[in-house]
Amino acid sequence: MTGKTEDLSATLANLRGDYRALVQRLEANEREFQRLGRAVFRVEEEERRRLARELHDGLGQNLTALKHRLALLASQLGDSRPDLQPDIDASLALCSQGLADTRELSRLLRPQVLDDLGLEAALDWLARTLGTSGGLAIEIRADGLPALEPDLQTLVFRLAQEALANVTRHAGASQAIVSVRVHAGMLRLTVWDDGPGFDVVAAMEKSRRGESTGLGGMKDRVALYGGHLHLESGDDGTRLAAAVPIPGESGILPP
Ligand SMILES: Nc1ncnc2c1ncn2[C@@H]1O[C@H](COP(=O)(O)OP(=O)(O)OP(=O)(O)O)[C@@H](O)[C@H]1O
Ligand SMILES: [Mg+2]
Question: What is the mean pLDDT of the chain?
Answer without folding.
Answer: 92
